Amino acid sequence: MNEKKLFEIVARVFNSPINEINYESNPENIENWDSFTGFVLLDEIETNFDVKFTMDESLEIEKIEDFKNVLKKKGIKFE
Amino acid sequence: MEMKKLSYYINEAKKIMPENYKKKIRIAFVGSFTLNGFEETIQVECNEEKINCTTYNSPYNQFNQEILNENSNLYKFKPDIIFLLIDNRTILGDLFYFTNINSEKEKKKIVDKKFNELDGLIETVTKKIQSKIVIANFVIPTYTSLGIYESKIEYGIKEIILDLNKKLKTMSKNIDSCYVYDFNSFVTKFGEKNVLDYKKMNYGDIKIDFDIIPYLIYEFLGYVKPILGLNKKCIVLDLDNTLWGNIVGEDGFEGIKIGPYIEGKSFVEFQKVIKSLSENGIILAINSKNNQKEAMKVINEHPHMILRENDFSCIKINWNDKISNMKEISNELNIGLDSIVFFDDDPVNRELIRISIPEINTIELPKDPSTYAQILRNLNDFNTLKITQDDTKRKIMYKQEQNRQKLESSTKNLNEYLKKLDIKIKIKLNDKISISRISQLILKTNQFNLTTKRYQEEEIKEFVKNEKMIVGCSEVEDKFGENGITNVFIIKTKSNEWIIDTFLLSCRIMGRGIEEGILSKILEIAKKKGVEKITATFIPTEKNKPAENFLKNYGFKKEGENWTFLLKNKIKIPNYLQVELK
User: Fold this and answer.
1) Is the same domain home to B321 and B397?
2) DSSP B365
3) Edge-to-edge strand order for the sheet containing B361-362?
4) Count of domains in chain B?
5) How many CB pairs below 8 A link A and B?
6) Whether A15 and B14 lie within 8 Å, measured CB to CB
7) How far apart are CA A12 and CA B12, in angstroms?
8) Lower CB density within 10 Å: C or N end of chain A?
């Protein structure tokens, strides 16, 4: 469920079809992912999952899977 | 008011189709920190208002270079309006952090120097281009290293920022095209901890939280609307449960709620905000289904009403449908439906007006009346770039107009009526004092306007200086009072031919032959100067039908796209008008 939620946020922020989003999605394979929209994504994930990423956690993000890992650390369950 | 999230605007901006709207604006953002997202948000918000908006975002923290370099992309972009945002740390440098190392005298010296640099930048912009420039003022920090002792020392950091803001205000009072945006109040409204995000600040020098950006842009749109003449002129109000609580027809004079007690206070506050807007020239009208006698008794006699009969320029209290009432209000006040904002607590009425007259801005009201005043305060529709004397007198002028209409219906013959009015027209040429009113009329007059060309105040100043051009305006008065400046004309002159670039008449004074009187005077002046021919154009728009036959009826002859008048012909001035050149 949270996987779907995460992918939906990513799809909405980058305006891309949800079936093109997976854990390997990154700035190389998503057209609208640049340094600024990357912040926007982080911001939306923080708001929607009601968590805060630390500076270091946010610096380590390279692909969508990294978001999942931090979220799991913060107690968000992924199957 | 709820705004959408920034990601919505970023995506939506990509979908905007290049519609050909009549209203166009070029907006530049210049700042000392990251302003990403601003462009997309304002593009989408403009598009919703049917404005074609082109934007430019200066490279990160290059405001000095962009302004000082004559060939910068900012100047090449040719903006109509520039928003300049500089943050405390950039302008004050170390002084922002280490306020108390220096003596008061030294601090003042540093602040003066920093401000003069900023002042110099603004002056450079105003000399270089005819753009409005809006500078955000500085945010008073909530933290000071002195803590509670801050109040005991002279010129601490809070006082420094206050001083800078005061200097900004003085500057903007002296430069017509420069406005100060009260960013400090904006941050106060949303709360420093919600607006400023330190993680993002370190990350990408993003100073303003993403969710807050759309609210800030909404306020910026408050500058764009009056530049394009899109600001609203009139508030139309319902009565029961809008201006007071309960229903006068059912609960009676004593049963309605307004006054200094819990359920009554919301309505007092709402009426006070409305009244303050009316003092700045916004006109008020009532559109209510009610028994007129009962409702008027409340308006005239209820001890706690703030708005009284005299505050309203048009009152429709009857059992007719609200759509016809609305159209009558628009007709009687001679204002377009698109300059009306409508308040009604009843969702059915709101939907009715929204569907049948979408031009009207019908405000969504929650059930709780304690929110009304704040909703009205948050609207960005009533901004004006200038408040002229005419604005503050407008309410009286509309009342006089109603008296004129009464006389008109009691006088059978139109010519006889016009004679009785005792109309005097005073024409002024290239009068610098009138420029702001002239510009206001040029930006907002839709109906009696031959060419509907829009010029900003700065352009008009250039025209006045130009020896080959004449910028004229006319003040009109009659036995009921003064109408102020209600006509503008701009003429391009050649030795044997004058070309009428602009000729407009405020809707307040239409239908009295005043336009003929003014045109005749222009022709007389031209004839005296040896000019042989006058050329004019009529450019049709959706709204300027009233001016359609003016040139033809006066005796101009069609010549291709233009209308011409040869000055060897006789010039006639209507006999009931007194026209003089000042």
Assistant:
1) no
2) -
3) B312-318, B283-289, B234-237, B340-343, B361-362
4) 3
5) 40
6) yes
7) 11
8) C
Q: What is the pLDDT of residue B73?
A: 94
Class of domain A2-73: mainly alpha
Alpha-helix residue ranges (DSSP H) falling in B422-513: 435-444, 457-465
**Residue B101 structural domain:** 6-227
Q: Please give the residue of chain A at the shortest CA–CA distance from B12.
A: A15
Nearest to B297 by CA among B267, B266, B254: B254
Asked if residue B472 lies in contact with residue B524, where contact means CB atoms within 8 angstroms, the answer is no
Name the strands in the sheet holding B51-57, side by side, starting at the edge strand that comes first in the sequence.
B51-57, B23-31, B81-85, B132-136, B178-181
Claim to verify: residue B218 and residue B263 sit in the same structural domain = no
Tokens of A78: 């992924």
Does residue B19 lie within any of the structural domains? yes
pTM: 0.70
Name the token pair of B527: 């004839």
Pairing of strands B481-493, B533-536: unpaired
B240: β partners: B244
- What distance separates the 2 farthest-apart alpha carbons in chain A? 31
Query: Which residue has 């009604």 as its token pair?
Result: B344
Looking at the structure, do residues B409 and B267 belong to the same domain, yes or no? Answer: no
Residues of B in contact with A37 (CB under 8 A): 7, 10
Which chain A positions have a beta carbon within 8 Å of B34's beta carbon? 36
B185 plus B42 within the same structural domain: yes
Tokens for A29? 């394979």
* CA-CA-CA-CA dihedral for B268, B272, B275, B280, to nearest 10: -170
Determine the straight-line distance between the first and last CA of chain A, rounded to whole angstroms: 8
Chain segment A3-62, per-residue pLDDT in tens: 999 999 999 999 889 999 999 999 999 988 888 888 889 989 999 999 999 888 888 899
Residues B317 and B452 in one domain: no
The domain that holds B307 is classified in CATH as 3.40.50.1000
pLDDT at B402: 72
Question: What is the rounded distance in angstroms from the CA atom of residue B501 to the CA atom of residue B485?
Answer: 19
Per-residue pLDDT, B411: 59
A44 touches B at CB < 8 Å: yes
pLDDT at A1 > cutoff 70: yes
Residues B198 and B65 in one domain: yes
- pLDDT of B409: 62
Residues of chain B with pLDDT under 70: 1, 204, 406-414
* B10, B200, B211 member nearest A37 (Cβ): B10
Give residue B468's identity as a one-letter amino acid code.
K
